[in-house]
Amino acid sequence: MATAAPIGRIPSFFLYGEAPRELNERTLHVETIASRSVRHHWKINPHVHRALHQLVFAVRGRGVAFAESDVAPYRPPALVIVPAGTVHGFEFEPGTQGFVVSMSDDLPREIARREPDIRGLFKNPATLEFQDHALRATDLEQSFTMLAREFARSAPARMLALEGLLEVILANVVRLSHSFAESADATAGKHRQLVARFRELIESEFRKDKSLADYASALNVSASRLRNACLSVSEQSPMQMVHARILLEAKRQLCYTSNSVSEIAYALGFDDPAYFTRFFSQRTGTSPRTFRRRAPRA
Predict the structure, then answer these.
(1) CATH 3.40.50.2300 applies to domain 28-176
(2) Which of 32, 92, 121, 142 pairs as cysteine with 63 (C-beta 3.0–4.6 A)?
(3) Alpha-helical regions (H) of the chain
(4) pLDDT of 101-153, one tens digit each?
């Protein structure tokens, strides 16, 4: 495998349909699902926000959420969590009611300093369906409504109110997703921290032909310690985690770009497209070309 530059062609927006731009500190935007989706016939094509996390809360109206190569039909009430950098799209039932909250990473990161469980919310995309009785036991729907109303105002201390309501929303999401369950075991905690560092390293290095020893050295731990941590936390070996990230990127490019299989192979660091095809086929049970042909289109 050889080092190659990332490949793109997936539309990148600030908000859907808007050109990327520099974020102001503490960026927060709130709108209804209908306000943007109705202009696009309730269909939001695959795209990415490089620097904004999103919460999409559907109160009424079914739909389908596309995240990377996964398709998640949902029925309301439902919440779709879209971390920054996730290729995603939606098909909303006409007349869908709900809210879209877009935020820069500094906002949840600051809240996470006081409430560490917030960190886990934007690690991976997720579609959460709620039971009506469970939702009624929280302030989630009311908080989204209040946040949207406050966003539309121009009043003193507006940002203070917005950030306070965002905290309430995130706290309720944590409760609903049971993210407060943390192991008290010190070793497990250290394993989680090491695996979190490893995941971050994978993001910057997965296109390079690095060995387990290379990754362990970069993390300043032994290969056996890294392996034990990964197996404990993810039930995968370190290299299985690296290969899963390569596979995810391959699926993303096959679904959302027109690049040839050879171009994708080289961009992911493979010297030989035939080896990439074997790598992909062994892990998915289908060839890259067949996967592309069968992939759902948003």
Answers:
(1) no
(2) 92
(3) 33-37, 106-114, 132-136, 140-151, 158-176, 186-205, 212-219, 223-234, 238-256, 261-267, 273-284, 288-294
(4) 999 999 999 999 998 888 889 988 989 888 888 888 899 999 999 999 999 99
